[in-house]
Amino acid sequence: MRHLFLFIAFSIGVGSTAAQGQDPIVLRQMGSFHVGGRLIEITGQPIKEVVFTPGGVPARMDPNGKYQVEQMYVQYFLPQHRKGKMPLLLWHGGGLTGVTYETKPDGGEGWLNFFIRQGWDTYISDAVERGRAGWTNTFKGDPVFLPFGDPWERFRIGPPGSWNNEKDKRTTYPSAQFPTAAYEQFMKQAVPRWLTTDDQIVAAYVELVDKVCPCVVLVHSQSGAFGFKVLEARPEKVRGLVAVEPTLGGDPNKVASIKNTPVLILYGDNAKDHPRWSKIRQGGVGYAAVLKSAGGHVNVVDLPERGINGNSHMMMMDRNSDVVAGLVHKWLVDREFSE
Amino acid sequence: MRHLFLFIAFSIGVGSTAAQGQDPIVLRQMGSFHVGGRLIEITGQPIKEVVFTPGGVPARMDPNGKYQVEQMYVQYFLPQHRKGKMPLLLWHGGGLTGVTYETKPDGGEGWLNFFIRQGWDTYISDAVERGRAGWTNTFKGDPVFLPFGDPWERFRIGPPGSWNNEKDKRTTYPSAQFPTAAYEQFMKQAVPRWLTTDDQIVAAYVELVDKVCPCVVLVHSQSGAFGFKVLEARPEKVRGLVAVEPTLGGDPNKVASIKNTPVLILYGDNAKDHPRWSKIRQGGVGYAAVLKSAGGHVNVVDLPERGINGNSHMMMMDRNSDVVAGLVHKWLVDREFSE
After folding, report:
1. Is the per-residue pLDDT at A11 higher than 80?
2. DSSP secondary-structure letter at B49?
3. Is B301 helix (H, G, I), strand (E, B) or coil?
4. Buried-most residue among A5, A10, A227, A305 (CB within 10 A)?
5. Distance from CA of A237 to the nearest CA of B (A)
6. Average pLDDT of span B227-237
């Protein structure tokens, strides 16, 4: 039926061309909203006169009063031909935004388009204090800015010692799938992040889950911890959890409460041997064992053991991103989250 | 032809429902990218050990070296049935992001969906240091945070003196079109902004225009000044300019160079009498007169004089936003930018 629809769409799409020979994306709706956050009160500040645009007309601004803080941003795409039985939420990692899942740095389609094309109602978000969520100077400590070369080794594009500021002297892991020519485009996606805002981020995610779930949540890196925390807070809302290289698992003391939610934990290539990632992976594997022993449903997948090689920490941007997304989608279909 | 297509799409869209009874949105492609910016070098900082996630494995971070700064974010939606003859770029105002044009605070469809549905290849962006563009601590001065009540009067939802922290004591202009019950949702869209970054913002916009234009650019408020500056820098690329309540016009000394680009300047209700907006409007009207006397094509429209009443500064969020967008679209069709 779907093929018939697409055939007809192509046949009568007068004057239009499909980009890259792909099927059109047909949405019954798309939109965005902010969720969560609270109002705080600031007092005792002097009234200012602000010139917002050089040469423009000054405005009087009273900085006292209420401020909106700690909300988050969500954008959603609802395919016309829906196959997922509940929404799929894609949560990004630290120092990044929902852009993680959009067009890949090399220009190819990312996981957002992949999952929409598979018929999932897909929700992308920017966590509290990241991207379109906005930020305020009310968080504790200083924000961290990502040095240009830092992710090259920390995200396992190349092994420790492989980064070089000279482009032609950088090296990668053998068979690395990250599109290194697009590394600069990737780094343009980076945003500052605080180290003290986990509670505020989780509070907003809980509000999001209360608003749009039951659902499946896919988390990455920093949001691994958020995914498990929100699952523990709302086990009846988060029906499935896919954790892509989570930097932390859940609370071993709360595994019994989440045992009805299937969990998939994925690791890319070279995680086992990397000085830092081997510890992170071991933490995840250990947590999975505790969850399993409590009757939980958890699969830990090292991609190389499935014959999928060369993946970095940013596997949704790697050249073979569709292969990894396909594995995730199949896991969800096998658990009847989708047709 | 389009109606036939949509009829068929509805007829065979098995198991799916159109939200709010509207036609599906059919895209030949959608995606995003970052553009502009540069690399800077930081030296002399001590190496840090960072715990990104409480309880996680520490990472060594050398804060010295290069940093990516001053890029901007762009998201695009390309309708299958294209009618606009060139892309339409929507640029947001100060302290906001591209979210300005997405779903309205009251949940209705915004100008992004409106223009996609009219067949425009539509590009939404977050300017340098706003939203998904990211930001760094390399800008001069302090960022400005928008007090919760400030836009109520400054954006002409209510007249001077009408804001009250108590919800039930706020007043609006008579026949105000802003959905005041959704004011808090609107304020969740606010992001910090610096007052010293115009040059960096314009530089990135010029790179965007070089990448995706010839085009029509629609600007709002702060981006009014950016629209005229980019038009002056690239008169052959910006083929049409729609300025929605620009806080500043172009350079009166450069009008001859942009006289081939039609310009529409729009003002909402109560702008003429407002203590600050009357000055802003007079600046725009004065600039338009200079442009016209040099042979330029410029229309200044006060919406109330077209029988469109009650519009605030955020007319793309007002209840009658489609009426205003329709006026813009008709102006563009009349100038043969679209079928």
Report:
1. no
2. E
3. strand
4. A227
5. 23
6. 98
A-chain residues near B65 (CB < 8 A)? 147-149, 165
- A/B interface, count of CB pairs below 8 Å: 277
**ipTM field:** 0.93
* Residues shown for chain B: 339
Cβ neighbourhood burial of B320 (10 Å; 0-12, 13-18, 19+)? middle
pLDDT at A200 over 60: yes
- Give pLDDT, residue A54: 81
pLDDT band at residue B67 under the 50/70/90 scheme? very high
Q: Closest partner residue to A12 among B4, B59, B154, by Cβ?
A: B4
Helix (H) or strand (E) holding A331: helix A321-334
Residue A309, chain B, CB below 8 Å: the answer is no
State how far the Cα of A102 lies from the Cα of A89, in Å rounded to an integer. 13
Amino acid at A321: S
Q: Using an 8 Å CB-CB cutoff, list chain A residues near B282.
A: none
Q: Is the pLDDT of residue B12 over 50?
A: no
3-state secondary structure of B37: strand
User: Tokens in use for A98?
Assistant: 């929902």
Q: Which amino acid is at B321?
A: S
Q: What is the rounded (10 degree) CA torsion for A326, A330, A336, A337?
A: -20
Q: Name beta bridge partners: B60.
A: B49
Report the chain A residue with the minimal C-alpha distance to residue B39: A148
Helix (H, G, I), strand (E, B) or coil at A233: helix
Each residue's pLDDT tens digit, A98-150: 999 999 999 999 999 999 999 999 999 999 999 999 999 999 999 999 999 99
β-bridge partners, A72: A35
State chain A's mean pLDDT as an integer.
Answer: 93
What secondary structure letter does DSSP report for A336? T
Structure tokens at B181: 């019950």
Instruction: Give B40's Cβ-side CA count (13 Å radius).
Output: 13
Predicted confidence (pLDDT) at residue B20 exceeds the cutoff of 80: no
Q: Is there a contact between B266 and B298 (Cβ–Cβ < 8 Å)? A: no
Which region, left, alpha or beta, applies to residue B124 given φ > 0 means left and ψ of -120 to 50 means alpha? beta
Q: How far apart are CA B217 and CA B125, in angstroms?
A: 11
Residue B15 has pLDDT above 80, yes or no: no
The DSSP call for residue A41 is E
Which pair of tokens denotes residue B116?
């996609």
The one-letter code for the residue type at A19 is: A
CA distances from B329 to A255, B116, B323, B324 (A): 56, 11, 10, 9
Contacts by residues B159-164 (CB-CB < 8 Å, ≥ 24 positions apart): B159/B270, B159/B274, B160/B274, B160/B275
What predicted TM-score, i.e. pTM, was given to this entire model?
0.93
Nearest residue to A267 via CA among A227, A315, A217:
A315
Q: CA torsion angle for A186, A187, A191, A197 (degrees, to 10)?
A: 80
**Axis-axis angle for helices B198-212, B223-233 (nearest 10):** 50
If you write DSSP's letter for every residue of B104-159 in order, what string do you get? -TTSS--HHHHHHHTT--EEEEE-TTSGGG---TTSSSPPB---TTHHHHHTTSS-
In the three-class reduction of DSSP (H, G, I as helix; E, B as strand; rest coil), residue B241 is classed as strand
Q: Does the beta-carbon distance from B56 to A16 stay under 8 Å?
A: no
Is residue A72 within 8 Å of A33, Cβ to Cβ?
A: no
Whether residue A243 contacts residue A284, with contact meaning beta carbons closer than 8 Å, is answered with: yes
State the DSSP string of B195-238: SS-HHHHHHHHHHHHHHH-SEEEEEETTHHHHHHHHHHH-TTTE
CA B337/CA B339 separation, integer angstroms: 7
